[in-house]
Amino acid sequence: MTTATATADITEADAHETAATPTATPDPLRVAVIIGSTRTGRFAPVVTDWFVTRAAESHPGLDLDVIDLAETDLPLTMTDFGQPRPEPVAALAPRLAGADAFVIVTPEYNHWTATTLRAGRRQTAAG
Questions:
Q1: 67-123: per-residue pLDDT in tens?
Q2: Which entry of 1, 22, 64, 97 is 20 to 30 Å from 30 by CA?
Q3: What HEC string does the chain produce?
Q4: With a threshold of 0.90, does the pTM exceed it?
Q5: Which residue has the higher pLDDT, 116 or 53?
Q6: Which residues of 44-72 are buried (b: 16+ CB within 10 A; e: fewer)?
Q7: What is the CATH T-level fold of the domain 26-125, as seen in this structure?
């Protein structure tokens, strides 16, 4: 009989705690989907569209931000230390910094990623 009473007390306490605790809506997971290819006739946007559609359908709580490096006009060389970031870099950096996760869609060129993708990473990571 003691066991049943203890279980009932725990159940009542749990129910009281659950009723008193407000339910918070979690922030959506912010995913930056980066298209790393900038060549004319590239296939990466097709793959990206496929991925974004599937991800949105299967995980409706995601906040998907597609970043097409072909539209960013990132410089391929970095500025000197202490110099201000170029406008395209300054615009892209907060989008990357605000992401919780990254999906990178890029072709392989000679066993390496696209130059634009590497430049974008370096430019936005530089302080």
A1: 999 998 877 767 778 888 888 888 988 999 999 999 999 887 777 766 667 666 666
A2: 22
A3: CHHHHHHHHHHHHHHHHHHHCCCCCCCCCEEEEEECCCCCCCCHHHHHHHHHHHHHHHCCCCEEEEEEHHHCCCCCCCCCCCCCCCHHHHHHHHHHHCCCEEEEECCCECCECCHHHHHHHHHHHCC
A4: no
A5: 53
A6: beeebeebbeeeeeeeeebebbbbbbbeb
A7: Rossmann fold (3.40.50)
Mean pLDDT score across all residues of the chain: 79
Phi, psi of 55 (to 5 degrees): -65, -40
Phi then psi for residue 81, to 5 deg, are -55, 135
User: Domain boundaries in the chain?
Assistant: 26-125
Q: Answer whether 45's CB lies under 8 Å from 35's CB.
A: yes
